[in-house]
């Protein structure tokens, strides 16, 4: 079954700037699907259309068989999104923040303990998230993203700004979450990260999907001069 189906989605912002042009994308259930592209390519905008934060100008998106436009609330209960370097509330502990998010989703408090354990945060549960290192902060955001047991988790540049060890730890966590049954769409600038994690990778440039396939199939394209060099 397909977890997400995007058909002919276009989106423009003010000034006529086209962020997405007739995008088609299918994410198979159980996959870690990569979306690789440079700054401004349209990755975040595409995720926003898939989670229902942005309505496309044209085209349609289905998540778990539900049309996002007409079943927004149901879709938002089935998905979650994690952005790199999201802001956090000051002077609030990891557990307190997760309890707050659990309330938002009507999730039981036992889920807070589960996600704290799952992401390795249990020992740090009573520490302020604002004081975490960037690697632990990113784990916290992933914990937040798991609070509603999403069927599909959208990870927008989950390792951006992390040192190599923290990035590798986040990648391991992503793999484990996927093995436990969560479908993942991951955006990245790094081919090596996509190659390491993703069964299928879509290349996006200037709002268009320009190629899609396995890492082996895409390697030569991505290593062309002018493409961003992986830094991990
Ligand atoms: P990055 O890797 O830098 O996060 P991206 O691939 O996620 O980039 P988007 O953030 O989706 O790219 O942006 C795609 C294009 O749409 C860019 O030209 C951006 O300036 C524009 N854009 C995105 N959101 C808005 C907005 N709310 N208003 C106006 N333009 C926007």
TrEMBL record:
Entry keyword annotation includes Cell inner membrane: no
Protein name in the entry: ABC transporter domain-containing protein
SMART domains documented for this protein: AAA
Molecular function GO labels: ATP binding; ATP hydrolysis activity
UniProt keyword terms in alphabetical order: ATP-binding, Nodulation, Nucleotide-binding, Transport
Keyword Transport among record annotations: yes
Family, similarity comment: Belongs to the ABC transporter superfamily.
Segments traversing the membrane: none
ABC transporter domain: residues covered: 4-231
Organism field: Mesoterricola silvestris
A Pfam family the protein falls into: ABC_tran
CDD domains: ABC_DR_subfamily_A (cd03230)
């Amino acid at each position: 079954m397909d977890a997400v189906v995007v058909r002919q989605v276009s989106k423009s912002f003010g000034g006529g700037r086209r962020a997405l042009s007739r995008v088609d994308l299918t994410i198979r259930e159980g996959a870690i699907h990569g979306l690789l592209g440079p700054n401004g390519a349209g990755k975040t905008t595409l995720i926003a259309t898939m989670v229902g934060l942005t309505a496309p100008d044209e085209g349609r998106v289905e998540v778990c068989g539900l049309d996002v436009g007409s079943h927004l609330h149901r879709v938002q209960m089935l998905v979650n999104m994690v952005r790199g370097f999201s802001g956090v509330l000051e002077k609030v502990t990891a557990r307190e923040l997760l309890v707050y998010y659990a309330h938002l989703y009507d999730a039981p408090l036992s889920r807070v303990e589960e996600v704290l354990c799952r992401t390795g945060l249990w020992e740090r549960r009573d520490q302020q998230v604002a004081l975490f290192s960037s690697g632990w902060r990113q784990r916290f955001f992933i914990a937040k993203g798991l609070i509603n047991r999403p069927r599909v988790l959208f990870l927008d540049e989950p390792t951006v700004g992390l040192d190599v060890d923290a990035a590798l730890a986040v990648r391991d966590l992503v793999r484990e979450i996927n093995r436990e049954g969560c479908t993942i769409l991951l955006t990245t600038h790094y081919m090596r990260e996509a190659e390491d994690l993703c069964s299928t990778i879509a290349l996006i440039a200037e709002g268009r999907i320009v190629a899609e396939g396995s890492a082996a199939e895409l390697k030569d394209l991505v290593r062309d001069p002018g493409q961003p060099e992986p830094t991990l």
